[in-house]
């Protein structure tokens, strides 16, 4: 946890400001949160009813993303983030809601001016442990995106939301008036070849359009772009891309391994996502 980032956080219980005292975050009402050995803070307000990513899912995601299979998405996100950031000035962090291992936020921070602080939220402790060491300027926090974001009002110049849940009202609250949300959602063609071959979960039609409906009236569309690329994956990468997301909850590991073994040594599939920008409604 970086001391410079603490000013963007608030107590999940009373919404008071936080300060760092040694390895403990404290608020004026004496709520306290000890930092984990890895440096992250747990700001969950209460036990969550949602499943969090398991260590196996997090490991699969970290390995898959480290191999740069989704490099076209990472590059597009970093470039669009730089454009959005340049349109704001003054104080504010880069927030990543549901940021997982920190892969995308690290790439975005590398594209932004030195000294830009990153705050990453995720409900999965294994993911946050990795995120805490993904980049020197990431401050990682365990938090539930559906139970109030532990950030002060107008904390973020930029917010990222990649394949993750989002609370529109809370995102609008923590974004500066001139801030931008960059949200990434899959299109129906995303990994379609694997969906057919392995009987994976299908992406709902017009997901990007429904995203705008769900963010209204708190956030309004600014622009969007489609990111499409052809991927060539070996069996290891296929297993990882299935295991790192929601399909892992619906696939018996032994059955998945057997199905993957029946595939050709390398498989061609499609990266197909929408990168959409939103701004707080005025």
From TrEMBL:
- In this chain the 23S rRNA (guanine(745)-N(1))-methyltransferase N-terminal domain maps to 10-44
The residues that the entry says bind Zn(2+) are 27, 31
InterPro entries, alphabetized: Methyltransf_25, RlmA_N, rRNA_m1G-MeTrfase_A_prd, SAM-dependent_MTases_sf
Q: Which Gene3D superfamilies match?
A: Vaccinia Virus protein VP39 (3.40.50.150)
Q: Which Pfam families match?
A: Methyltransf_25, Zn_ribbon_RlmA
Q: Which UniProt keywords apply?
A: Metal-binding, Methyltransferase, S-adenosyl-L-methionine, Transferase, Zinc
The segment(s) forming the Methyltransferase domain are: 94-179
Top-rank taxon, per record: Bacteria
Q: Which GO terms describe its biological process?
A: methylation
What protein name does the entry list?
A: Methyltransferase domain-containing protein
Organism encoding this protein? Streptomyces alkaliterrae
């Amino acid at each position: 946890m970086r001391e410079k980032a603490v000013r963007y956080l608030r107590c999940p219980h009373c919404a008071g400001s936080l300060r760092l005292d040694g390895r403990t975050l404290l608020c004026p009402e004496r709520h306290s949160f000890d930092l984990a050995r890895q440096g992250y803070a747990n700001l969950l307000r209460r036990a969550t009813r949602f499943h969090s990513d398991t260590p196996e899912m997090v490991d699969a995601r970290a390995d898959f993303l480290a191999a740069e299979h989704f490099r076209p998405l990472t590059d597009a996100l970093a470039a669009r983030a730089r454009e959005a950031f340049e349109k704001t000035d003054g104080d504010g962090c880069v927030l990543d809601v549901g940021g997982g291992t920190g892969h995308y936020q690290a790439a975005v921070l590398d594209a932004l001016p030195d000294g830009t602080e990153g705050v990453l939220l995720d409900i999965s402790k294994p993911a946050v442990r990795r995120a805490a060491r993904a980049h020197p300027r990431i401050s990682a926090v365990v938090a539930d995106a559906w139970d109030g974001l532990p950030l002060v009002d107008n904390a973020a110049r930029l917010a990222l939301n990649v394949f993750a849940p989002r609370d529109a009202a809370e995102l609008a609250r923590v974004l500066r008036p001139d801030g931008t949300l960059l949200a990434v959602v899959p299109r129906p063609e995303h990994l379609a070849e694997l969906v057919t071959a392995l009987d994976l979960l299908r992406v709902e039609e017009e997901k990007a359009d429904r995203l705008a409906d769900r963010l209204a009236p708190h956030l309004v569309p600014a622009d969007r772009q489609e990111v499409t690329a052809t991927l060539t994956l070996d069996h290891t990468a296929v297993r990882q891309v299935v295991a790192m997301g929601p399909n892992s909850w619906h696939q018996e590991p032994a059955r998945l391994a057997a199905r993957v073994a029946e595939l050709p040594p390398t498989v061609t599939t499609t990266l197909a996502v929408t990168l959409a920008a939103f701004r707080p409604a005025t």
